[in-house]
Amino acid sequence: MSDTFTLPENCTAKTSGIGTTDAPLSEKLAQIADKRLTGRASHISPTMVHSAVRVIEFLMLSLSGLIMAVSYVSVPSVLYDVRYLTSFVAVAAFTVISFELMGLYTPRAFASYMRSLPRVLLGWTIALAIYAAAVFFLKAGAEFSRAWLALWFVAGSVLLLTGRTVLASCVRAWARQGRLFRRAVLYGVSDVTKSVIDDLESDSDSDIRITGIFDDRGDSRAEKEIRDYPRRGGLTDLELFCRETRVDLIIVALPVAGEARLAQVVEKISVLPADIKLPARATAVRFSPRTYSHVGSVAMIDLYDKPIANWDTVSKWLFDKVVGATALILLAPLMAAIAIVIKATSKGPVLFCQKRYGFNNELIEVFKFRSMYTDRCDADASQLVTKHDPRVTPIGRFIRKTSIDELPQLFNVLLGTLSLVGPRPHAVKAKAGDQLYDKAVEGYFARHKVKPGITGWAQINGWRGETDTTEKIENRVAHDLYYIENWSLLFDLYILVKTPTSLLNNENAY
């Protein structure tokens, strides 16, 4: 296998994608030839990979030193000897620092393992050599086993080489899948666009791959092809593209001087679950360096950030799985009892599956305990449930008021379509009065920038149940957006703790 770091085909929009003409994307989505471009595989943040590798290598080296010492020396003297314990940590930490200084924590080093392995061994050798020299000059050589040090060197070398080989295989696989790179689209055709593309392509270590350029202006005002990238459509096509494929970054390459157009574009795309940035080149005004973030070497002004990214994604995922599984086990007896009562009091299945909008407007199936008569179930929620609604069964009224009908959604949490906490997923045809939710509230789809949840900030503040007026859905969405903008794991925990008591306020739940 070659040791060079090559880019995956699906990350190069020049040679693969949805075509080479400037026809609107909406006409081509059904005929996309390269399915890899529209894959929904999640992005693996290089920042997370770098951090994880550092921690894993530190632990590997520390533990291998401990195991070698326990095996060769004597157990009590090692486990209670501060000098040995300090040695394990110090040498492992210095090795990680030396790897950092030698550039061994970069995507290129991870993938090009045949070139990086000699440097890995060199860094490990230097760390142990400095440790041995320190022991010698401190005249502490008699207090440490030389055989242990030799065994540690061999064990550490084997672990590092094996680990880097496995890592290289993973990185190559992620690169082929397009998961290790951020997929970016640009809106606007101008000299700024060309400069941004040139800068991104000249940076060999950039994790950005351009997958589309969009502009609403006609051929007479906007080029069909920019730096060999075809123009794929307008603003509506950009939004559709972001719904159909994974887009991590939207670069708005419009001059700040066109304030009205810039504001209109940003407002339209702000509902999408992607980072939105403006190139610093778009304005002649220069700000403090701390104002800018950088995409590779390109200075950017942040307009919107993904609300939950990098390690936050991991922590929320772990929180959902651990707490969700625990809740499912503890609530299993109650759920079994409810299922028996539903089955005994009305004909039909115990569970009811309903299509709802999930993350990024994707349609998901949500599980609920059936609370209506089978022949009167409203899968699309086209008709609001009202007080004394004849479609609702007697047991259904109780479980809807107490939200017990939502408990099967714990299975959705374990399957990954829902979170424990987040904006509640709404049915496809849910309405506020006689208007669909997205028509009743401007910017409604911004609540889909994160995964929906079983409970949320709106629900514990009383905005649950019937939405017979526009005001009710407006308040619900406002609370959802507040949650998204202020998310933290502690916020999730607070909402979960408050949920049981908030269910006592059920005047709007029928």
Describe what is shown at a glance.
The protein is of the alpha/beta class and 510 residues long. Helix content is 46%, strand content 12%.
What does this structure look like?
This protein folds into three domains: 12-43 and 181-304, NAD(P)-binding Rossmann-like Domain (Rossmann fold, 3-Layer(aba) Sandwich); 46-177, no CATH class; 311-502, no CATH class. 46% of the residues lie in helices and 12% in strands. It has 16 helices and 14 strands. The strands form five sheets. A six-stranded mixed beta sheet has the order 2-1-5-6-8-7. The chain has a two-stranded antiparallel ribbon with strand order 3-4. The protein has a two-stranded antiparallel sheet with strand order 9-10. The longest helix has 35 residues, at 311-345. The termini are far apart. The model is unreliable at 1-38 (pLDDT under 50).
Morphology: flat
Q: What share of the residues does DSSP label as strand, in percent?
A: 5-15%
- Helical region count? 16
Report mean pLDDT, rounded to a whole number.
81
Q: Largest sheet, if any?
A: 6 strands, mixed
Distance between the termini: 63 Å
Count the E strands.
14
Share in helix: 40-55%
SS-based class = alpha/beta
- Largest sheet, spatial ordering of strands: 2-1-5-6-8-7
Count up the domains. 3
Element order: H for helix, E for strand: HHHHHHEHEEEHEHEEEHEEHHEEEHEHHH
The low-confidence runs, each spanning 5 or more residues with pLDDT under 50, are 1-38
Radius of gyration: 28 Å
